[in-house]
Write a structure and sequence with these properties.
Layout (H helix, E strand, L loop, with lengths): L1 H16 L12 H36 L1 E7 L6 H13 L4 E6 L2 H12 L1 H4 L6 E7 L7 H14 L3 E5 L2 H43 L1 H9 L4 H37 L3 H6 L12 H25 L1
Helix pairs in contact: 2-7, 2-9, 7-11, 9-11
Length: 306
């Protein structure tokens, strides 16, 4: 009885020595390759969306901070256009101001038209606006800049009010923060799903090769040794799938950049070629998740088996 068992054990160990404890190719794992690749693709796209949304938020905030709108109210017998031109001349001499433009009534009407429509505009007075672009080479704190401009206008006898777009700035920054948090949440959820998928596959692989695991245990193989076989197997598989997913995500982003997406899309998500650098660690991160998950699951199952 002992002879056949030993021979059978040695026969099974020959499978291990030949490197076929976990075969290089397993048709049952094709679907797993696909799932991990898709998850890595989605995670990479989420990471690039985080970077693009952060870049867009900074761009929007910079543009909003760089512009100030001044509404001028004419006094006496002067017309609105004359009052706006006078205010523009005064503001042009204020330190920290880059460019000043008194908006024509037609342009001011065009700005209000999308909100109120033609019918209502005919019955409303058009505001006299002055568009001020601040000098970004010598930035000044918004509160100080507003106070300086207001003082200059008051000293010149001009009745005006200043809108530094701070209300809009808060909304933009809040929206950008929400987008970043949602994208980061999606990113971490996808990677946790990858770990769950690898854990399920490890359980299935261990169950399918339970007889070989039993023989290895009988012959003195440690749980660590057995776990390492699964660890490196799923690390390699996760790396290959992650490489495919990251490459596909990079291809999608390159296609968006190369085809010149619509202007509105480019403003909302301004992708950059440098975003491709974030894809480099993704396959290695997926491989690390796969290796650690497979190792922990295998050791836990072997401990219960013992």
């Amino acid at each position: 009885m002992i002879g056949p068992l030993v021979a059978q054990s040695l026969n099974r160990l020959g499978v291990l020595k030949a490197g076929r404890l976990l075969p290089q190719q397993d048709q049952r794992e094709i679907a797993l390759h696909y799932v991990i690749g898709v998850l890595c693709f989605l995670a990479c796209m989420a990471a690039m969306v985080v970077m693009a949304s952060d870049r867009a938020a900074h761009g929007w905030s910079r543009d909003i901070r760089a512009e100030v709108t001044v509404q001028v109210r004419p006094t006496g017998l002067e017309s609105g256009s004359v009052a706006a031109a006078k205010a523009a001349e005064v503001l042009a001499g204020v330190k920290g101001v880059g460019q000043v433009t008194a908006l024509e009534p037609e342009k001011a009407r065009a700005l209000i038209k999308p909100w109120l429509g033609d019918a209502i505009l005919d019955d409303l007075p058009i505001p006299n606006l002055v568009e001020v672009t601040l000098d970004q080479r010598h930035p000044v704190a918004p509160q100080i800049m507003n106070q300086t401009m207001m003082t200059a206008l008051t000293n010149a006898g001009i009745d005006a009010s200043i809108d530094d777009h701070s209300t809009w700035l808060k909304d933009v920054e809040q929206s950008a923060l929400t987008i970043r948090l949602i994208s980061l949440g999606i990113f971490f959820i996808i990677f946790s799903a990858t770990g769950a998928v690898v854990g399920f596959a490890t359980r299935a692989g261990l169950s399918a090769r339970a007889d070989i695991v039993d023989v290895l245990s009988l012959c003195g193989a440690s749980d660590i040794f057995i776990a390492e076989r699964f660890q490196w197997r799923f690390a390699r598989m996760a790396f290959e799938s992650g490489l495919l997913g990251a490459g596909l995500a990079g291809g999608v982003m390159a296609l968006i950049k190369a085809t010149g997406s619509s202007q509105s899309f480019a403003i909302a998500l301004p992708f950059s070629w440098s975003d491709l650098l974030i894809l480099i660690p993704c396959p290695f991160l997926v491989a690390l998740i796969g290796a650690l998950t497979a190792r922990m699951v295998t050791l836990r199952l072997l401990a219960h088996h013992d």
